[in-house]
Amino acid sequence: MLLSATAERIHHKTLLCCLVLQGSCVLTIQLSDEELGVGVFEGEDVELFLVLTGSTQRHVSSVLRLSRDTLQLVCPAHDCCETVVVTLCWADPHGLVHQLASEHMCFTQDLAFDMAHFLVGSVGHADMLEGVLLLDEHQIPLQECERLDQSLALALAHLTPPPGLNLLGNNPEPQETLLHFAARRGLCRVASFLLQQPGARDALALPNKQGATPASLAHSSGHRALLELLTQ
C-alpha cells in the first residue's frame, strides 16, 4: 500500500508521507498487485475504510474508490506531531472486519499552524501584532493571500483556544486586533472564524492607534468581500 498526499501544505521531508495536523488534505492510496490479489475488490459493494492510530487518537474514515487499485480520502485532523499507523480494512457481508494492508504516516506542524499559535498568543498584547505590520511593507501576491487565508483559517479552527479567550484580551483601549490583521490582508475565511469568537463585536468597533477599524482597513485596502462580511 503506497500513500501519497496532495495539498499545498504537504511536505515530503522524509520517506514517510507527511500531513499537517489540521488535516483536510487529500490522501491517495495505491494498492499493490499482492493486495489486489486478495480478491476483495471484485465486488462493488465491498465496504472499505481506513484506520489511523496514534498515541492518543484513533480516526476511522471511509474511502472513495477511484479505480480498481486507487483509493482516496480526506485526511482527518490530528492532535499532535507523530507517526501514526495507517490500516486499510474491509468488512465482509457478515459484518466481520478484516485488515488488508498497513503503512505508516507522519503528522507534522506547518507554518500556518505556527502562525495560528502566534496570533492566538498575541491577543491582549497589541505590541506583538503591531510588529506584524512589517509584512505590509512588502506587497503579498493575491494568490499567496488566498492560500494563507485557507490554511490559517483551518489551523485556527483546529487549535484549542485558551480558557477565556477574548479578541480584545483585557484591554479595551485602541489597539491592533486579530480582525485588523485579517482586514489588512483580505483574509475572509480567517475573519469569518474570528467573528464567531468572544469579543468579536467589540473588536469590530475598536479602532487601532491610527484610528482605523477593521472595516475601514478592508475598505482602504480594496477588500470588498471582506468589507461586506464585516459590515453585515
Automatic annotation (TrEMBL):
Domain of life per record: Eukaryota
InterPro entries: Ankyrin_rpt-contain_sf, Rho_GEF
A GO BP annotation: regulation of Rho protein signal transduction
One GO location term (cellular component): plasma membrane
Protein name stated in the entry: DBB domain-containing protein
Organism lineage string: Eukaryota, Metazoa, Chordata, Craniata, Vertebrata
